[in-house]
Amino acid sequence: MKEHKTILLAHGSGGSYSRRLVEEVFAKAFSNPLLAPLNDQAVFSLPSKRLAFTTDSYVVNPIFFPGGDIGKLSVCGTINDLAVGGAEPVYLSASFIIEEGMGMDELIRIVLSMSKTAKDAGVSIVTGDTKVVERGKGDKVFINTAGIGVLNGDQELTPANIRPGDAVVVSGTMGDHGIAILTHREGIQMEAPVESDCAALHTLTRAMLAAAPSGIKAMRDPTRGGLATVLNEFAASAGCSISIREDDIPVREAVKGACEILGFDPLYLANEGKLVAVVEAGSVDAVMKAMRSHPLGKDAAVIGVAEAGHKGKVLLETSIGNRRILDMLSGEQLPRIC
Amino acid sequence: MCLGIPGRIIEINGETARVDVAGTVKEANVSLMQSVKTGEYVIIHAGFAIERVDEEKAQETLDLIKEITG
Amino acid sequence: MKYIDEFRRRAEAQGLLRKIREISKKEVSIMEICGTHTHSISKYGIREGLPSNIRLISGPGCPVCVTSAADVNRIIDFSRSRRDVIIATFGDMMKVPGSASSLQEEKANGADIRVVYSPLGALDIARKNTGREVVLFAVGFETTVPTVAATILAAQKDGLKNLSVLSLHKLTPPAMKALMDSGEIKIDGFICPGHVTAVIGAGAYSFLATDYGAPCVVAGFEPVDAIMGIYMLVRQLEEGRKDIEIEYDRVVTWEGNRKAQEVINTVFEPSDSLWRGIGNIPGSGLRIRDEFSGFDATARFSIPPGVDAEPKGCRCGEVLKGLITPEACPLFAKACNPEFPIGPCMVSSEGTCAAFYKYRKVA
């Protein structure tokens, strides 16, 4: 292809420019039999009648960051939303809204990253769309992915099933992605040796469910809003409170340092390769063993327990021993001087 | 008004120092300090080093607290 | 994290709380005058570990909370009338409600408002946008003042012509004096802010002991520092001493940071200032000296005084003076909460009400 150096409005207008872009960039990278005909839809059968379906849009800035990029994020994020529901991810769609003037090389880098991430995860991107908006009306690129997964059993993972006595576990360190992004934003010059934890979690959830097929009550990946927000959502759906210990929550030293400088709380920062799960007391050992044996769960930790009383609240035992309420995130966390 | 964090100076380049807080390195302006040395701890506030941390006094405070609490 | 973790240890914190409960007999009211102390005390549940005869009051220590409604409106009106100007602000100012809007809302409506972590961030923006004017909304007490002064000096050295500062700075000792003079509340002693004092020196508070008989302890912000500071103050009150003591002596000295003080005095001079809930306090604010008028936003632009209108039902003023706790305000946690704040005490991350709301004690 006589490559254009940048994306033009013509690339989104449905004509020959669009066709060439789809064939030579997207289809070439995502390459699979369902996508190949380049029809308006992908047609397929699935082995189970119980399916999971999810969608998410990705608008992260900067689009390239330590540990990943917006493309990798868009594939992992949607896989993870399926995985925490106990589903095996199978097919993804990918829609792109590209700002006129975005560098072709940057777009290709992102698309190749998506292709690699999908291949490594064993999923295919089978259908998609491309639009181009005028310069200034976008932010380089926005990506939407939707995903279909297959549920093999009867289990229903939902926070309404949480009961007093259930344990709360996390798969690893909190706040890595949030800090990796923030420290690369303009105006906050900091060298934090922290990479985004962006990763596909479905093989981890598979191992956890195999270890305790009916012992896992709910799982979620704590993205925007962080661990605190997810726990509040769990507590609100369940009929009880959730009590956690600050000292038990794994946080990297460098993330702690960056948070201290900016005045942030790691419990409210985004994670893109971690999950929090509520597990029946009797299954905790088996689940923890499965997690710790998996590369994405080696820092897994039990951080708390569901309790009766204080319905809907999340209680935090601080590092000096007193308990307080841990709220949901309200608004944006902004760097403060005070 | 007072979010200030102790960090260790690892490098000085004229008016700017690189300060290490638990492995995260932040640049801080040192023009408010009479003098700074590599290896010293300083308090950083809003991108500036505003005062040294006296390590001996820090230990004395901890020792005093241990004594008081028995 | 060195010099942070050691001052967060459970044994020391609980041990000191125990000692306080042991020695404390008198009914006393002590005031802390720094939002970061309010935040820390709430975050670690320190208030609940104190015996009931000690009343811990949160004073006007949050620069955003004490900024008058008129100044908040002024900022918002300026951002509306001059969409061509880049406005740089610290994060906290973004959500403070004026009579009709906030900086956050103005940004959503198209104003070029950028959050900076340091005043040097504003300098950077000015350097990268030489064709546009940049105005820094400078709030903060004496910890932040020298950083803004140093930034103005750096801009002058660089010959930068497009950066100016709207000084809304406030000074700590004049506010403490005004509180003691107002006689409205009984304050037996003060917990003084560690980093403000690192700059101004503990000697700045000696008038409180000599003229008002109020002992002071300068404390750090980690929980062990704060509790140790309270312990030292309670001990003074029990023993009838009236001294200025320094708990945070690893950073704070009697003289303070002389160089930082010189930098402040080079660029700023004291002025009157309007404090929300307290009124005008002479010499409690700072204005940019005439020699630096090129960097003074009030000299470069016509920034009319804003409309001074307290939000209806808001009792932030009384909270700031330590006359009531947040729970006593009928709006607290009902009509007024972090998502829909009515007054600045709720919207600022270190406002007394926000700290109380976020870290509500669990029975």
Task: Please summarize what this structure is.
With 70 residues, chain B is α+β, with helices and mostly antiparallel strands. Chain B has one helix spanning 55-69; strands spanning 5-13, 16-21, 24-29, 41-45, 48-53.
Short descriptors:
heterotrimer, A: 338 residues, alpha+beta, 60s Ribosomal Protein L30, Chain: A, Phosphoribosyl-aminoimidazole Synthetase, Chain A, domain 2, 2 domains, seven-stranded mixed beta sheet, four-stranded mixed beta sheet, 8 helices, 28% helix, globular, B: 70 residues, SH3 type barrels, five-stranded antiparallel beta sheet, 1 helix, 5 strands, elongated
Q: Would you kindly provide a written description of the structure presented here, covering whatever features stand out?
A:
The complex is a heterotrimer of chains A (338), B (70) and C (363). Helix content of chain A is 28%, strand content 23%. By secondary structure, chain A is α+β, with helices and mostly antiparallel strands. Chain A folds into 2 domains: 9-150, PurM-like, N-terminal domain (60s Ribosomal Protein L30, Chain: A); 159-325, Phosphoribosyl-aminoimidazole Synthetase, Chain A, domain 2 (Alpha-Beta Complex). In chain A, the strands form 3 sheets. In chain A, strands 9-11-7-12-10-13-14 form a 7-stranded mixed sheet. In chain A, strands 1-6-4-5 form a 4-stranded mixed sheet. Chain A has a two-stranded antiparallel sheet with strand order 2-3. In chain A, a hairpin with a 2-residue loop joins strand 2 and strand 3. In chain A, helix 1 (16-30) runs parallel beside helix 3 and helix 2 (70-83) runs parallel beside helix 3 (104-121). The mean pLDDT of chain A is 93. Chain B has a 5-stranded antiparallel sheet with strand order 3-2-1-4-5. In chain C, strands 2-1-7-8-9 form a 5-stranded parallel sheet. In chain C, strands 4-3-5-6 form a 4-stranded parallel sheet. The longest helix of chain C is centred in the middle third of the chain and has 17 residues, at 223-239. Chain C has one domain: HypD, alpha/beta domain 2 (Rossmann fold). Chain C is of the alpha/beta class. Chain C has 17 helices and 11 strands. In chain C, 40% of the residues lie in helices and 16% in strands. The B-C interface holds B 1-6, 8, 21-22, 29, 31-34, 41, 43, 45-48, 50-55, 57-58, 61-62, 65-66, 68-70 and C 1-4, 6-7, 11-12, 15-16, 18-19, 34-37, 61-63, 90, 117-121, 140-141, 143-144, 146-147, 150, 153-154, 193-196, 198-199, 221, 224, 228, 231, 247, 249-252, 257-260, 263, 350. Strand 8 (190-191) of chain A pairs antiparallel with strand 3 (24-29) of chain B.
